[in-house]
Design goal:
The structure is a single chain. The chain has 3 helices and 6 strands, in the order H-H-E-E-H-E-E-E-E. The protein has about 160 residues and is of the alpha+beta class. It has a single domain, classed as Nuclear Transport Factor 2, Chain: A (Roll), CATH 3.10.450.
């Protein structure tokens, strides 16, 4: 791999890991600053019962911006989510300016007040398992997201899950 290719891979990994930290800290505007103006976001899971993808959520950058501005007004479970991610693959496009990446994703939730009867306050539980499938562009050593598809293995999400994963 060329030095430029290696630098592109590192820029992509940095963007993915940085996005997880920003989402963990609910820094929505900063997270959106990692996304291109034409950014497309979706959350999907395959259903073996219907042999088809279920789409939980789909939006562009403008919709996400409006949605995240409204999050403080939603009646949600405020127990924080923390992402654990590992970038599996980064494939740099032939032009050296685009890349695709697949990242393993596990999200844990720290229960604040024992909202769920089977979980005590302060207890952590597994919220979801899946993967990020990202398309990014790289310009001047900085990667920005063009598309993120969250591919869930988990198919049941708790109520109040209004935020981006």
């Amino acid at each position: 791999m060329s030095a430029n290719g290696a630098a592109t891979v590192e820029a992509v990994k940095d963007a993915i890991y940085r996005s997880c930290l920003l989402l963990d800290d609910e820094k929505w505007e900063e997270w959106l600053s990692l996304c291109d103006d034409g950014f497309q976001y979706s959350i999907k899971a395959f259903s073996p019962e219907i042999n088809y993808d279920m789409i939980y959520f789909s939006a562009d950058r403008n919709h996400l911006s409006t949605m995240t501005e409204q999050l403080p007004k939603h009646n949600t479970d405020h127990s924080p989510l923390k992402r654990h991610s590992v970038v599996y693959t980064v494939d740099v496009g032939e032009d050296g300016k685009t890349a695709t990446a697949v990242t393993s994703l596990v999200v844990y939730q720290n229960m604040l007040d024992g909202i769920n009867s089977h979980l005590d306050s302060g207890e952590n539980h597994l919220f979801l398992v899946g993967r990020y499938v990202d398309k990014l562009k790289v310009d001047n050593g900085r990667a920005t997201f063009l598309e993120r598809e969250v591919r869930l293995e988990t198919r049941r999400l708790d109520k109040g899950s209004h935020w981006p994963i």
